Amino acid sequence: MLAKRIIPCLDVKDGRTVKGVNFVDLRDAGDPVELAWQYSEQGADELVFLDITATHEKRKTTIDLVKAVARQVNIPFTIGGGINEMRDAEILLNSGADKISINSAAVRNPQLIDDLAKAFGTQFVVVAVDTRLVDGKNYVHLRGGRDKTDIETENWIKEAESRGAGEILLTSMDNDGTKNGFDNGLLKKINDTINIPLIASGGAGNQQHFVDTFQQANVDAALAASVFHYGEILIPDLKETLRKNGIIVR
What we know:
Blueprint: E1 5-13, E2 16-21, E3 24-30, H1 32-42, E4 47-51, H2 63-72, E5 77-80, H3 86-95, E6 99-102, H4 104-108, H5 111-120, E7 125-134, E8 137-142, E9 147-152, H6 153-163, E10 167-172, H7 184-191, E11 198-201, H8 207-217, E12 221-224, H9 226-229, H10 235-244
Parallel strand pairs: 1-4, 1-12, 4-5, 5-6, 6-7, 7-10, 10-11, 11-12
Antiparallel strand pairs: 1-2, 2-3, 7-8, 8-9
Helix pairs in contact: 1-2, 7-8
């Protein structure tokens, strides 16, 4: 059985780590490179950096950030935000990123998933999905959660897998930043229908929430931001709690 992964997520805006609630009301959480180094030292398994306004502002992810992080950490990291074409992904990979995360661009042009997977391998391609419950159904949202689509989340994730996504990063916008726990019902439903790793995102508030999502939804990894950034959960403590609950971690 594969070890479960703990992944701090750093939402980056104007070169700083920020965190909000339900994707709004952002506040500063520190220097992303410094935080990345701290998490690497604490025993995080991977890192995710999302340039959260890159797509919205039609701006490319900061290459300098990627290079700086690559110099500082020795764990895999994923970069997302503003990746719209093959060239964007190629530059990030060459700058030191291990994986790229695509969201809005993949929905607008699903062929991009096929092309990236073919060029770089499926393990390089993470498809991020921001989902929100509307009238009893989960729909994909774009541009940092600003725009609702008519695409049902479950259908889109199956298509992304079929096109070559190596991993799905699923963020529940309803749970994001609330610290009330992950959306384990949705996560389990999705996880039961796909054969690629699923990363839970949105809602972590305490160590028990991580235990719950691994036990109830059997996700491959759990991602969180503010509980790590503000020192509410320390990764060594979290991993010890997971071990005590019979969950295999690195």
